[in-house]
Design brief:
Elements (H helix, E strand, L loop, with lengths): L1 H24 L4 H12 L10 H22 L3 H31 L4 H10 L5 H10 L6 H26 L8 H25 L1 H8 L3 H18 L7 H11 L6 H25 L3 H32 L4 H10 L5 H13 L6 H21 L1 H8 L12 H4 L10 E4 L4 H11 L4 E5 L2 H9 L4 E3 L5 H6 L7 E4 L4 H13 L5 E5 L3 H10 L3 E3 L6 H11 L3 H15 L3
Parallel strand pairs: 1-2, 1-4, 2-3, 4-5, 5-6
Helix pairs in contact: 1-2, 2-12, 3-11, 3-12, 4-5, 4-7, 4-13, 5-15, 6-7, 6-16, 7-11, 7-14, 7-15, 10-11, 10-12, 13-14, 13-16, 15-16, 19-24, 22-23
Length: 561
């Protein structure tokens, strides 16, 4: 029996490895490979994975490790880090997406409760996929990347609250809905108070002692995860809620990074099993029954969700380009979607037949959104005409700017970080200047400091016409975006501008391309910081010839011909 079980697990893992290699070669997300593996080895096709209890137990361990590590990142200080806009936009996105999802699911024939849970489940996006792709693209620190991560943190917190609520309801299926909700809230309050006490006064001493040995720290962290994950089930909570709370209780311990490093390999292995088990529930018969619902809900996640995010961010003053980039980044179903649905099934709120439909939606959205993430800026450039009604030239009367705007001598595009340090040098030049940004928080900061400013997208040629960019003597763009730099330089060349053009590159490779486009000077932050450039600016000013010696030296370093 043991040998048969071993060979069964071996066959499943080998199949997953082969399909994962093919998926990686085809540049597909590995999660898709795991789900396809489940479809192959499941009862619908090959029927290899017959030990359902064993695989279900392994997948539950994977869920526990995933939520434990998510909890480690849910330090309440993170709310302050993501900022007010990310919190408000994140909550707005969740509310509108859940409401729209509920309406579509109800229209497709699901009952009110099932529709509401489907809407909530599909309101969350995949943290694992988004963070990985943005990190690979080096876009995590870009403006839209920071907003995307901020919204993901808000989603994680909201999904945690929903999980706790569903978990508390598991053992309270009898009685009226008011009594169930009331008892669930009491349970949650008691557990959270006890956990806060332990995290504040007990756990720091235990883990400080365990940290003397890396092996001991690893084992104690695992023990704490399983203590809560299994212990809270006796109080009506699920394994998911216990593991999540175990992670949260250690989020501010100071040892969370070391714990995460040790546990991540275990999480990755057991999550493979989780997605394989998920795939086994996707049968050909199930797909035939729910293909229309899966297709419509997939289109909602892929198209409707980005549109909702664009509208929400636009209401907060963000440019359509930012809303589009954030929206297509979040256009897929999250791992939490399945955990929420599984928890709702365990509670008895919805039928298990919902899972095949959700699995199909996950396969479609994860596969397509991976291309959205890769080609997001190319897509916006191609479909920008669809969003032009969103990006009207600023209302000059409202901003206190005359319709016939006087062309400033110096234009600074982008205020965050590098731009803020350069602005001090610009002010010393005693020339009229204007700072342009499409981040409302940056505009608010400039307003407080009484600096000449304007909200707008410098990639929009109508906006560049409005601010008379071609008549400026010096243009400094601190936005390290190759596409935006190309648009600005091409515009200035077409307008036959004589302005000195200083731009910013993320890497030496981008810097070489910017020089080829026609940039006067390129700031590479890894080679030249904002303070040093500010010193150069006060001496070089806006004469192109003054920069020539420095440009020659930099081009040699960058190997530019």
């Amino acid at each position: 029996m043991e040998d048969l079980l071993f060979f069964e697990i071996a066959a499943v893992i080998i199949t997953a490895g082969v399909i994962a290699l093919i998926a990686h070669f085809l540049r597909q997300p590995l999660i898709i490979a795991y789900i396809i593996t489940g479809l192959l080895v499941g009862p619908g096709l090959l029927g290899i994975a017959e030990s359902h209890e064993v695989f279900d137990a392994l997948s539950e361990i994977g869920i526990a490790f995933l939520l434990f590590l998510v909890g480690l990142h849910l330090n309440w200080r993170n709310i302050k880090d993501v900022g007010k806009i990310a919190v408000m936009a994140g909550l707005g996105q969740i509310i509108f997406t859940a409401a729209a999802g509920w309406g579509i699911a109800y229209w497709l024939g699901y009952d009110h409760i099932t529709s509401a849970i489907i809407g909530m489940a599909f309101a969350f996006s995949s943290t694992i996929i988004i963070v990985k792709v943005l990190s690979d693209k080096e876009d995590l620190d870009r403006f839209y990347g920071r907003i995307s991560v901020g919204i993901l943190i808000v989603q994680d917190i909201v999904s945690m609250i929903l999980l706790l609520g569903l978990a508390a309801m598991r053992s309270d299926t009898n009685g009226g809905i008011t009594a169930i909700i009331g008892l669930s809230l009491v349970k949650m309050a008691v557990v959270l108070i006890v956990l806060w006490f332990l995290a504040r006064f007990v756990l720091p001493h235990v883990f400080r002692y365990a940290a003397h040995s890396q092996e001991l720290l690893f084992l104690v962290a695992l023990s704490w995860c399983f203590v809560l994950a299994s212990g809270l089930t006796f109080f009506g909570f699920g394994i998911e809620a216990g593991a999540l709370l175990a992670g949260i209780s250690l989020a501010s311990s100071g040892f969370q990074r070391e714990i995460e490093t040790k546990i991540r390999p275990l999480r990755d292995f057991f999550l493979v099993i989780f997605f394989i088990v998920l795939g086994t529930q996707l049968t050909v018969e199930g797909l035939q029954e729910s293909w229309l619902s899966s297709l419509i809900l997939s289109l909602f996640v892929l198209i409707g969700n980005p549109l909702i995010i664009m509208i929400v961010l636009r209401l907060f003053g963000y440019h359509p380009r930012t809303g589009f980039l954030v929206g297509v980044s979040l256009a897929q179903v999250s791992e939490f979607s399945f955990i929420l649905l599984a928890s709702a099934i365990a509670t008895g709120l919805i039928a298990p037949s919902v899972l095949p439909m959700a699995t199909a939606v996950a396969i479609i959205t994860i596969a397509i959104s991976s291309y959205f993430l890769k080609y997001n800026e190319w897509m916006f450039d191609r479909f920008e005409f669809l969003f032009r009604f969103f990006e009207a030239v600023p209302n000059s009367e409202k901003k206190g700017i005359k319709n016939e705007m006087t062309a400033p001598s110096i234009l600074l595009f982008g205020y965050h970080d590098l731009g803020a340090s350069i602005l001090h040098a610009i002010r010393k030049m005693q020339e009229d200047y204007l700072v342009v940004d499409f981040d409302p928080t940056a505009i608010d900061r400039l307003e407080i400091h009484s600096q000449p400013h304007l909200y707008g997208d410098v990639g929009n040629r109508e906006f560049l016409d409005f601010i008379k960019a071609s008549k400026a003597k010096l243009i400094i763009c601190t936005i390290p975006d190759l596409a935006i730099t190309r648009d600005v330089i091409e515009y200035l060349i077409i307008k036959r501008s004589r302005a000195a053009i200083v731009v910013t590159a993320k890497s030496a490779h981008d810097a070489r391309k910017m020089y080829e486009m026609g940039a006067t000077f390129v700031i590479v932050p890894s080679m030249l910081g904002g303070e040093l450039f500010s010193q150069l600016l006060t001496t070089k000013k806006y004469k192109k010839s003054a920069w020539s010696t420095l440009v020659k030296k930099q081009k040699k370093m960058l190997a530019v011909k």
